[in-house]
Amino acid sequence: xxxxxxxxxxxxxxxxxxxxxxxxxxxxxxxxxxxxxxxxxxxxxxxxxxxxxxxxxxxxxxxxxxxxxxxxxxxxxxxxxxxxxxxxxxxxxxxxxxxxxxxxxxxxxxxxxxxxxxxxxxxxxxxxxxxxxxxxxxxxxxxxxxxxxxxxxxxxxxxxxxxxxxxxxxxxxxxxxxxxxxxxxxxxxxxxxxxxxxxxxxxxxxxxxxxxxxxxxxxxxxxxxxxxxxxxxxxxxxxxxxxxxxxxxxxxxxxxxxxxxxxxxxxxxxxxxxxxxxxxxxxxxxxxxxxxxxxxxxxxxxxxxxxxxxxxxxxxxxxxxx
Length: 322
Hints:
eight-stranded parallel beta sheet; about 15% strand
């Protein structure tokens, strides 16, 4: 699959998730077969005003390329400025993705994220100004609409098509649904039928068969996996395997624990032990979900501040739960 001039190994992508798709996790997902990985959301204003915390979100590694950086904002001039002045010169970034789907209250209260679904004219302005200056393919992520009474995702998709967006990711929920209920895959199919640009389906892919069903139902060009990849970077390889007729092989308990330990090591090497251990707690809970006696181990790990202590607990878990 190609997005603009960027050739991708496959059409199974890691969706951006704030606080999740950092450098360490992206590297693991790339190793497990993701055709494209996307950064956490990066504030365009944070970049414009050179916020130190924002800069850390832009750290990338050659191992994860091709890489898309997702930006959010609602000021078209600031967004086009940071693309032209900061992102264009970066040779280690391949694609610029614009977020118009985030439902978080702290994002939409400023008119950013999925709040832009209510402002089609502003959507067009942002896309036009960013694409005009960008030297990299520009992609977009949207939802179905703001709420059930204003489902305008197809109209927004047509604007994206007209303005030269290279690919469009559609999360098949409205903003007011957040992540509840069931994603409406039929809507992804409708969007695909109404535009000419590649459509990436997103929402409720938690296992390999879900991806197969989404491709079959929607005729989408690719799929983006968010929550289904949490504690589960194998999902990309498993989808690829069954799509080429190979047997689906879920990871063993030992493979799960070994991946968790590798994630811990990688995260601490990038962010330092203090931050890495703290941020790894949620990932550990996702890795251990559903395993025997996992609640006891998760509760224990939430009290530990040492990387080596966490590893010791996990190795002991493997020994006692072969």
